[in-house]
Write a structure and sequence with these properties.
The complex is a heterodimer. By secondary structure, chain A is an alpha+beta fold. Chain A has one domain (2-87). Helices cover 49% and strands 23% of the residues of chain A. Chain A has helices at residues 22-27, 36-44, 51-61, 66-82, and strands at residues 2-3, 7-12, 15-20, 31-34, 86-87. Chain A has a 3-stranded antiparallel beta sheet. A two-stranded antiparallel ribbon of chain A has the order 1-5. In chain A, a hairpin with a 2-residue loop joins strand 2 (7-12) and strand 3. In chain A, helix 3 (51-61) packs across helix 4 (66-82). In chain B, 34% of the residues lie in helices and 28% in strands. In chain B, the strands form 2 sheets. In chain B, strands 4, 5, 6, 7, 8, 9, 10, 11 and 12 form a 9-stranded mixed beta sheet that branches. A 3-stranded mixed beta sheet of chain B has the order 1-2-3, with helices on one face. In chain B, strand 8 (134-137) and strand 9 (142-145) form a beta hairpin. The radius of gyration of chain B is 18 Å and the shape is globular. Chains A and B meet through strand 2 and strand 3 of A and helix 5 and helix 6 of B.
Chain lengths: 88, 243
């Protein structure tokens, strides 16, 4: 899975906002507010990832169990799909 | 036949190529005499103008000349992002030489509030741009500039002032005003910035938005339409100067 190109993540004082440009912007007009973990996943999703690769990256970077990581990955992926900014 | 004109926008000399002759009238007041040197050049083609129609409400017929002005602004803001130019949606007003920007969703009353400042404080305040001012980011300051794109009432002038405050307005029965942290202001600021479709220009725009959050005091105000509301925001934003 991968994000459409044109999703940029920006951060101020621990508040993350993803904005969509171009083709991605036409599908989802606006911005998505997210926490640090979600922003971490969104940045990775700018290149091709699998559920497995994202879980591995999360458990390496954050103090989370494999299960928590998997839950998190699925939740974020679902939200991004719902926003229509994932490549299918 | 393609036409062109040299304009000065946000202290940048830009040669603008366009199609419909109405642009020269629209940009009057920002046009430089022949012989001045251009810092950059943009050209708007018919397809750029027609693309503006896609984003507009389908049931309204927008004249070609109007859509052309949108296409020019989009192209300029995209090309000028790397020179530190950002389009910020809001009503920018100068008071005693400093710029303050009121921002709110359309229809909330930012223009009305800015008009109240003019009514109450008279000559001391001057409209920079009532709708889409340009901000320019210099090393030591951020300035708001008047432009021809100044809202349906065409309020504004060809001058600039350093930005000393941004105030997000919402309607309220009572008047109250408070500071916003940069974290709270972040989504609000981003939603009022024009983000170009090109990724490098958009990244530059986001970096400018971050500078706004770090360097400019932010406020949130609930207000009704009254002179009291204007006095409250004026005194808070200008730091309690006496009227």
């Amino acid at each position: 899975m991968k994000l459409l190109s044109g999703v940029l993540v920006s951060e101020v004082d621990g508040e993350y906002v993803a904005v969509t440009l171009g083709k991605a912007g036409k599908k989802f007009n606006g911005m998505i507010r997210m926490n640090g973990t979600a922003a971490f996943l969104v940045r990775l999703l700018q290149s091709e990832q699998t559920e497995e690769s994202l879980v591995a990256a999360l458990t390496e970077t954050y103090e989370v169990s494999r299960e928590e990581a998997l839950q998190n990955v699925r939740l974020v992926a679902e939200k991004l799909r719902a926003a229509g900014i994932m490549e299918e | 036949m393609s036409l062109n004109v040299l304009c000065r926008l946000a202290d940048i000399n830009v040669k603008i190529g366009y199609i419909h002759p109405s642009f020269a009238r629209f940009a009057a007041g920002y046009i430089l005499p022949d012989g001045e040197k251009a810092d950059m050049e943009i050209v708007v083609e018919e397809e750029d103008v027609l693309r503006e129609r896609e984003g507009a409400e389908a049931d309204v017929h927008w004249p070609f000349g109007y859509l052309q002005t949108l296409a020019v602004y989009r192209k300029f803001c995209t090309a000028a992002a790397e020179r530190g130019v950002l389009l910020f949606h809001g009503s920018a007003i100068a008071a005693d030489g400093n710029a303050f920007i009121f921002s709110a969703p359309s229809g909330t009353g930012k223009s009305t509030h800015a008009a109240l400042w003019r009514k109450v404080f008279g000559e001391r305040v001057k409209m920079i741009n009532d709708d889409k001012p340009l901000l320019r980011f210099f090393e030591r300051e951020i300035r708001a500039y008047g432009t021809p794109w100044n809202g349906k009432h065409h309020l504004g002038g060809n001058f600039s002032a350093p930005v000393k405050g941004i105030c997000f307005l919402e309607r309220g029965a009572e008047n109250s005003i408070g500071s916003l942290s940069s974290r709270e202001g972040f989504p609000r600021i981003i939603s009022q910035c024009f983000l170009p479709d090109e990724e490098s220009a958009a990244a530059a725009a986001l970096a400018m938005a971050q500078r706004l959050l770090r360097e400019v005091p932010l406020y949130r105000m609930a207000c009704n339409i009254s002179e009291e509301a204007a006095r409250l925001s004026y005194h808070t934003l200008t730091g309690g100067m006496r009227s």
